[in-house]
Amino acid sequence: LLERMEELGVAPDLATFNFLLGACAKARPVLVDDAIAFQRRMEGCGIAPDVITFNTLIKVCVHDTPARLDDAIGHLRQMDELGVAPNLHTFDTLIKWCAKAGPLRVDDAMGLLQQMQEREVVPSVHVLNDLIAACTNSTPPRVDDAMGLLQQMHDYGITPTAFTLNRLIGCCVAVDPPRVQSVVKLQKQMEEAGLEPDAVTTTVLARLREREGVRDNLF
């Protein structure tokens, strides 16, 4: 496409390069080398990237096999250097992939959340759920961080979902000793919101009752 444009004497612009980067991100497997080449070509043409450019480059990095998380986070630093403001989509992608990386990169994900707050970018329920899941899946579970994220949901006026509360209950049960009172409060929140425990939660609660001799009517 670029070569054809040059033959016709048409100079590529920002929209052209963002289109080409989008094609690299949609390809399977993603075309990382091509995306890097297009980014360098942009620089050579003196075209300043925008938030769409960087969000697409981040998407390319995280969808590579294995995911290039360090490169993706590096693009966030480049945004700062060039004065390009990241948006919710930027942080959503980075936090999601830090939360599902192997091994988990919970500290990186929590640091990204802090950057969101410093920039006054309000996290979505999906961002906070990804972080709660990462805290729950940590070894040992990071129950205080997970419960702190629930509090942030309330502070932002975000309604917890069934996923939120189910994962938090699992986290509270998984620690030693289990946070029984927190489980009780979470169960009450579920009932008040008209949400149902999933199969995993039902199983872990049954095991908690059996292990701790908890009254059946407590949950």
Features:
219 residues, mainly alpha, 69% helix
Describe the structure.
By secondary structure, the protein is mainly alpha-helical. 69% of the residues lie in helices and 0% in strands. The chain has helices at residues 2-7, 14-26, 32-44, 51-62, 69-82, 88-100, 106-118, 125-137, 143-156, 162-174, 180-193, 199-212. Helix 2 runs antiparallel to helix 3, helix 6 (88-100) packs antiparallel against helix 7 (106-118) and helix 9 runs antiparallel to helix 10 (162-174). The longest helix has 14 residues, at 69-82. The radius of gyration is 22 Å and the shape is elongated.
What's the SSE blueprint?
Layout: H1 2-7, H2 14-26, H3 32-44, H4 51-62, H5 69-82, H6 88-100, H7 106-118, H8 125-137, H9 143-156, H10 162-174, H11 180-193, H12 199-212
Helix pairs in contact: 2-3, 2-4, 4-5, 4-6, 5-6, 6-7, 6-8, 8-9, 8-10, 9-10, 10-11, 10-12
Topology as a string of helices (H) and strands (E) = HHHHHHHHHHHH
Class per helix and strand makeup: mainly alpha
**What's the β-strand tally?**
0
Fraction in beta strands: under 5%
Distance between the termini: 62 Å
Any low-confidence stretches, pLDDT <50, length ≥5? none
The gross shape turns out to be: elongated
Question: Biggest sheet, open or closed, and with what strands and sense?
Answer: none
What value does the Rg take, in angstroms?
Answer: 22 Å
Mean pLDDT: 92
- Summed up, the helix count is 12
Helix percent reads 55-70%
